[in-house]
Structures are given as C-alpha cells and as structure tokens.
C-alpha cells in the first residue's frame, strides 16, 4: 500500500466533494484539508494503480474547477481510515 500527497492550488468550486467521490469509488483512505493560504492538501492511501487513477482526477478536476498541482509526494501508507474533508 502506498500514500499519495498532493499540494494543489487554483479554483476549487466543488472540487473537494468531487475528489472525495472518486476516492471512495476507488476505495482509498485519506483526507482533503484546506490550508490557511487557500491551497488544498490532498492525501490518499491505497493500491498504487488506484492512486495513479486518483492522481489523474486530481489533475483534471471537475468542470467548475481549475486545479494546479504544486507538489506531489509518494511514500508508504500510514494506515488512514475513511476519506474526509477538513
């Protein structure tokens, strides 16, 4: 199991809910947190092929959003449970 962490900037209209739906569809665990400067930290844990699919949706966004990935890091899973928006 792997962990994907992305720092995302841009316009986020409906974006966190959009990503959460895909994370749950892919059976990923993790969270989306809005940072004080307005960027999002998107973290997901699961099988690497599912995380690669999720990364595609992080980059693409929904029709109302314009995300820009600022940083991406891969590491080992830490055992997160569920998928949450903070």
UniProtKB/TrEMBL annotation:
Protein name: Acylphosphatase
Pfam families: Acylphosphatase
High-level lineage: Bacteria, Thermotogati, Deinococcota, Deinococci, Deinococcales
InterPro entries documented for this protein: Acylphosphatase-like_dom, Acylphosphatase-like_dom_sf
SUPFAM superfamilies in the record: Acylphosphatase/BLUF domain-like
Domain spans labelled Acylphosphatase-like: 3-86
PROSITE patterns in alphabetical order: ACYLPHOSPHATASE_3
Segments forming a coiled coil: none
